[in-house]
Amino acid sequence: MTTVNRRQVLGAGLAAGALSALPAPALRAQGKPEKLVYIGDNQGGWKRALVEEVAPAFEKETGIKVEFTLLPTDPWRARLKAELGARSSAVDVAQWSVQMAGWMAPHVLDHEEVLAKIKARDPGFDWDDFLGGSKRAASYDGKLCGIPYRITTGILHYQKALLEQAGFARAPGTFAEFLKAALAVNAPPERYAVGIMGKQGSGSYTSFASWLYSAGGQLCDFRTGEIFINQPKAVEALQFYADLMAKHRVVPPEATTWEYDEIIGGGQRDRYAMAQTFAPYGTLINDPASSKTAGRWAWDVVPGHTDREQSRTWIDGHFLSVPRYTKNADWAIEFIRMACSKEWLRRSAERANAPPRGSVLRDADLAAKLGWTPVAAQAIETGIPTPAHPAWDTLDMPLRAGVSAALLGQKTAKEALDEVASDWRRGLRRAGIGR
């Protein structure tokens, strides 16, 4: 607790100094509210710096409290849909993820204009420092909808010594190498080879997507309604992924209940030797204060299908936006400017965030401390953003069921994905896409 308080004091001083150095901003002319209302999700600890350090520093400088309403994933999305759909002025800062962009876009300011205000107040904000993948993910249909705060991507986490002892001098670069390494290091029931988020839930897509994209598979075309999810490359990807559990039994059996917290806990308890999962989870899995495997982990890009150069992963993340209906837009912009500054994003990285700034992820001192950050920067360059079209929420549900059925061995990948494709055709037609 002493460490946290000390960080809060130091952070408040840092932020106050940065704000005081700015010319008297035009926002001072806007009436000052007692508080800003922030609506976001409560999954994971990556918002600790935002909640415990940035917000108190912002309040100390401005006198405005930031009130956080943090909800589980589905209720968070439902709350924002309800508030923004009603054009409520009760939300000042909206946190959203990539797949929400399609329905969020009409309800938020044009953030090119927001960015122009930030640049005018803070010439050192440096928009060019944000990774290109983070900017693509923050945009929908040509509109910048938010300022990136967290960009997540899938990378390979692996216990280096275990692989070396099994004869693998480096991380597996192809599907075949991955399976060979998995079979070699599998040691049930104490430790299995591969950790996955096998629960039929919101983590299903990210656990499967890297295998899909690295195999050359695709989802669908939201413009034409053409469906690719049950084509051969996608089927091969899902069969490989599902076979890790159903056929080769290199996955902990309890992984069918695992999602975000569980994949972290499994790594900390030494339940697996490798996992394709969120890059910043490396901080928590490798944390000496809470992990029995601390110091054993290394990171690389996910395996390609038959060549390392085919490695492709997903990009997701969280963005901070100013709703069109807030009465406190200028103060919300100031909070976002502060939260997304180089200084605060650098600090957030040490508290489990995955900052979107290249200078932070490639920082030599941070890379030496955390390990995974330069790998994440590399993966983001070629990664594929989670679908942002509003219809994706409808399509995601049958995909979860299909992936789960294959993992449990209830259906072959072809059977599961054919059923997914059939559901998708109906869903896309209902959304007015395709025939």
How would you describe this structure to a colleague?
This protein is α/β, with parallel strands linked by helices. Strands 1, 2, 3, 6, 7, 8, 9, 10 and 11 form a 9-stranded mixed β-sheet that branches. Helix 1 crosses helix 2 and helix 18 runs antiparallel to helix 19. Its main location: periplasm. It is found in: Periplasm.
Number of helices: 19
Residue stretches low in confidence (pLDDT < 50, at least 5 long) are 1-25
Main beta sheet, described?
9 strands, mixed
Percent in strands: 5-15%
CA(first)-CA(last) distance: 59 Å
Brief descriptors of the model:
435 residues, alpha/beta, two-stranded antiparallel ribbon
Draw up the topology in text.
Layout: H1 2-20, E1 35-41, H2 48-62, E2 65-71, H3 73-85, E3 93-97, H4 101-104, H5 111-121, H6 132-137, E4 139-140, E5 143-144, E6 147-159, H7 160-165, H8 175-185, E7 192-195, H9 204-214, H10 232-246, H11 260-268, E8 272-278, H12 281-285, E9 297-300, E10 314-321, H13 329-339, H14 342-349, H15 358-361, H16 364-370, H17 373-382, E11 384-385, H18 392-407, H19 413-430
Parallel strand pairs: 1-2, 1-3, 7-8, 10-11
Antiparallel strand pairs: 3-10, 4-5, 6-8, 6-9, 6-10
Helix pairs in contact: 1-2, 9-10, 18-19
In short:
The chain has 435 residues and is an alpha/beta fold. Helix content is 46%, strand content 14%. α1 (2-20) crosses α2, α9 packs across α10 and α18 (392-407) packs antiparallel against α19.
